[in-house]
């Protein structure tokens, strides 16, 4: 379990990360999504054994406690996506970029957003 206090006066929530938190985040991952850097599919984590959540928790604990992660978690692969087949295929403005992020980074992002939603408020909610 990763235990950290919140410095925000707006939040009274305990921001500890547990293995059940990791299990809950795994269910929030979208299926059939590819990792752009490690060729890891989200399904591999979604359908993994319960012992995998402990290993993911240990990884997240190390990242958060030591404030260090591997370069692969920061990398993303940008894929060009065609906007319209009716326009010129050689025109750069006819494409948009799709970022394929690390699946483990996506997991950590979801968990941090869930644990910090009392601090990071949106006008959309």
User: Low-confidence spans: pLDDT under 50, at least 5 residues?
Assistant: none
- Helical content (DSSP H or I, runs of 4+): 25-40%
Number of strands: 2
As a percent range, the share of strand residues is 5-15%
The end-to-end distance, rounded to whole angstroms, is 29 Å
SSE ordering: HHHEEH
Radius of gyration: 18 Å
Q: How are the strands of the largest sheet arranged?
A: 1-2
Oligomeric organization of the protein chains: single chain
Structural class: alpha+beta
Largest sheet: 2 strands, antiparallel
Q: Mean of the pLDDT scores?
A: 81
Shape: globular
Please outline the helices and strands:
Elements: H1 19-28, H2 42-46, H3 50-66, E1 76-82, E2 95-101, H4 103-115
Describe, in plain words, how this protein is organized in 3D.
The protein has 125 residues and is of the alpha+beta class. The chain has a domain at 19-73 and 102-115. It is built from four helices and two strands. It has a two-stranded antiparallel sheet. The chain is globular and about 50 Å long. The chain starts with 18 loop residues before the first helix and ends in a 10-residue tail after the last helix. The mean pLDDT is 81.
Q: Quick gist of this model?
A:
The protein is an alpha+beta fold. The chain has four helices and two strands.
């Amino acid at each position: 379990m990763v235990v950290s206090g919140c410095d925000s006066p707006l939040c009274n929530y305990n921001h500890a990360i547990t293995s059940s938190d990791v299990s809950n985040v795994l269910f929030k991952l979208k299926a059939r999504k590819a990792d752009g850097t490690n060729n890891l599919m989200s399904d591999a984590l979604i359908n993994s054994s319960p012992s995998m959540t402990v290993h993911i928790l240990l990884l997240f604990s190390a990242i958060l406690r030591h404030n260090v992660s591997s370069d692969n978690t920061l990398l993303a692969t940008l894929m060009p996506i065609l906007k319209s087949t009716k326009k010129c295929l050689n025109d750069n403005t006819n494409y948009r970029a799709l970022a394929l992020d690390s699946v483990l980074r996506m997991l950590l992002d979801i968990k941090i957003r869930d644990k910090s939603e009392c601090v990071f408020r949106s006008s959309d909610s």
